[in-house]
Write a structure and sequence with these properties.
- Two copies of one chain form a homodimer.
- Chain A is an alpha/beta fold.
- The first copy, chain A, has 17 helices and 13 strands.
- In chain A, strand 2, helix 2 (41-57) and strand 3 (63-67) form a beta-alpha-beta unit.
- Chain A is globular and about 60 Å long.
Chain lengths: 471, 471
């Protein structure tokens, strides 16, 4: 039986190509149909051209479909991978600007333990609405399909969907990949590293870190001790930032992936503070300069993707390798590496979606980091809150690992509890579509100085995001 | 068998006299010994004189002891009522001044849902130390005695003691008395009001309010609708303040007792904000003017108590009624009413301690509002967190009532969760004696603008409170 995998929001070309390349590197999934869905026809057309080209060069047996109709993507799908960002970055930046105008540095969605600049939980009702729309559609038209959630906010999204829908659904993120980077920095062979992470999406912690049967934390501590003159290579290079190290000191376990970005206000009061904790010149990915850097990279990549697609359309036999070479000067290093990986015949992208599908479909059991309801795995957290943990997946299903050793109480009480509390507030505000709850949320915000400030920012946000409140 | 009741911190004369008068109005406890303990000899001597005088005028059969030795108070005690405030108000005001100097309006102990001006949880390690010292002493010398906790913070204190000590212990507060005041304002006969409160100390909510078999909330709503030109009679008059009404609107149940004082920053950003929500001219009890008013009343009462004691010493046959009359002009109305009640032969003070002792000793079953570990009574709250709920008490023990109807989720998620979270942070900071945890607490405080501000305030607090931190 051939599998239909639909990618919703397929216009983000790099993400889609990663999945497609993973697919053609997974022989057991040959014959699959990939349905690319996006409402942006131009981007959809470009990604379709690229996907077909890469797949055909790899000699892959994949059938492609492309549509801007969500129902067509859902119909007959076995897996729906959702990576859509409703309104795109432009919407997020607009919301941020309104927040900043009213005195909320980096926008109102920037919050304690949720500082990532495109992980919106308060002004993002359109995104949540889309989650709901998609799951309802799946319930109607593909009730046995899996929904694999890649779009942010994965934490709020997974919790919301698992609470309100009967479909099979799981949230994915690649943040745990920094365990590999950290191990590499320490000169540890990842194949001998016994590791485990636990927490919530963008707030995960290395609760287990052993090397060849021994605790590897002393090696990490030793490494940090001799680490001097640390400077980031790019804004996202924060595994060993002063912020990450300080969080390690306070919480007693190492923050993984996007977690160093998601500290308290201590590291984020203002841009100078960010520079101190995430390094010069950017102040990390979530400072104005760091975020501009990212947006610039993103637009370069989008441009080159569009150009490449155009060139392929004009000359189907084009060798994409030669296309990439002359532009190297302008192109982000990470993107070139990424493209090399996609073109490489063996190396997987690191995204978990295709291996996950392979595990379920062909019983190719594998270890993943998944977002699933807690169900008692982490103590003092409600059963229906989505946590991010390691799990073994095979044809028989999802088998989350017991958290061993347990997360320190410090992490649960000082980090996860306040983060989960705000997730609950944000979800209730969305579910009730109640701007008064956003107001109440902001009343408790460190940047708030008066009720008037709260009311005016919420009013403008509601107006500009198309939800006219009655507050 | 005669019962020994020790009052620790007996120097707060009004509170001690309330208990003594309750005792001589409870015939089933005749023959009891009351041990008055305080480290302030002058106040102890005054309260002893007054207690003996009032008791003898009432023809009571009470044996009095007075000591400044805690061990003597504990030895042989059946009940130890703790009302001691270590360092007194002077210490609290000193801590507040340091906070204000560093930009923390009303001091660092003033926190979201903990705005009461003498309910300190961060700078009050001396108080917590005393709780621990007293419970340890009781474990050694009176392991079967009950500790009745009256001293604030009752929430943190009860949780701490119940987690760390094996002694029988319960926290008491009289905040629920405002159910009577509210019923009276609505012209409801309290004997026909079926009510229940639930929450945590200083954060309790009227989850059940029925009158003669009918829901009484519509009567309350009607009352609020026609309530116009509300003005407080004194700073503590806040049952129907705009703040209380606004909290009712948001949470869906009415805030009781000290709860209207303990809203979010919405009502407390600054003194003008307080005046808007708690009325002119004071801005409520926890604004600078309201708190000065209270401190002035307190000092007047202390003075008159000392004068009265002196007058009795000089002339043991003095009629205290005549002593009070000529000074009426200066004396707080509430104090005069209080004294009338103490002199009255029947009316009880409203404090729960003596009726509680009577219930346990003589099986005179009664309904109380107690602070006890949650143990599943309120969902989504850990078992070992002290909650404040109604309970029936008799010789067989404490029988907490099921919470019926349950507290709204709104109260649990938006009020109790953040309050409990901060209780946990404060207790961990105390238990570890770790100023870094106070810093981390303040990093998440709305008034904080920088890490430097946090560090400097914590350093000065630690120095001035006698705990030299190593932070």
């Amino acid at each position: 039986m051939s599998v239909k995998i639909s990618i919703v929001g397929a216009g983000s070309a790099v993400f889609s190509l990663r999945l497609v390349s993973d697919l053609y590197k997974t022989p057991s999934l040959k014959g699959a149909t990939v349905c690319l869905m996006d409402i942006d026809d131009q981007r959809l057309s470009a990604v379709q051209t690229l996907a077909r080209k890469f797949a055909s060069e790899a000699g892959a047996d994949i059938t492609f479909e492309a549509t801007n109709d969500l129902e067509k993507a859902v119909d007959g799908a076995n897996y729906v991978i959702n990576s859509a960002m409703v309104g795109g970055h432009a919407f997020l930046e607009k919301m941020r600007a309104i927040g900043e105008k009213h005195g909320y540095y980096r926008g109102i969605d920037t919050q304690e333990f949720n500082m990532v600049s495109d992980y919106y939980t308060l002004t993002n009702w359109k995104q949540f609405d889309f989650f709901t729309q998609l799951t309802h559609l799946m319930e109607q038209r593909a009730p046995n399909a899996w929904m694999l959630q890649a779009a942010n906010p994965v934490f709020e999204g997974t919790t919301l969907i698992r609470r309100t829908s009967s479909i099979k659904m799981m949230g994915f993120c690649h943040g745990h990949f920094s365990v590999r980077e950290i191990s590499k920095a320490l000169n540890l062979d990842i194949n001998h590293v016994d590791w485990q992470v636990a927490g919530v999406n963008h707030g995960i912690w290395l609760n287990r870190f052993r090397y060849k049967g021994q605790d590897a934390y002393p090696l990490l501590e030793e490494y940090l001790l001799v680490l001097s003159d640390w400077k980031p290579e790019q804004p996202f290079d924060d595994n060993f930032s002063p912020a990450a190290q300080d969080m390690f000191g306070f919480y007693g376990v190492y923050p993984i992936g996007d977690t160093p970005r998601n500290g308290s206000w201590k590291y984020h009061f203002d841009t100078d503070t960010k520079k101190r904790w995430y390094g010069e010149p950017w102040g990390g990915a979530d400072a104005p300069e760091g975020w501009s850097w990212y947006q610039h990279q993103l637009s370069l990549v989008t441009q080159v993707m569009a150009q490449m697609a155009q060139a392929i359309k004009e000359k189907p036999s084009l060798d994409v390798r030669t296309f990439l070479t002359p532009k190297v000067g302008q192109l982000p290093e990470a993107f070139l590496q990424e493209t090399q990986r996609i073109l490489d015949s063996k190396e997987m992208s690191g995204e978990q979606h295709i291996p996950f599908i392979d595990a379920l479909e062909n019983n190719h059991g594998n270890r993943f980091v998944v977002n699933i309801p807690n169900q008692g795995l982490i103590p003092d957290i409600a059963d229906d809150v989505a946590i991010e943990v390691n799990a073994w997946v095979d044809k028989a299903g999802i088998h989350p690992e017991p958290i061993d050793p347990p997360l320190p109480k410090r992490v649960i009480q000082w980090y996860l509890t306040p983060r989960i509390m705000r997730m609950e507030w944000a979800l209730e505000a969305f579910i009730k579509k109640d701007p008064m709850l956003i107001e109440e949320f902001l009343i408790r915000d460190l940047r708030t100085q008066s009720l008037e400030q709260v009311r005016s920012v919420v009013q403008e946000i509601m107006q500009e995001s198309g939800y006219l409140g009655d507050s």
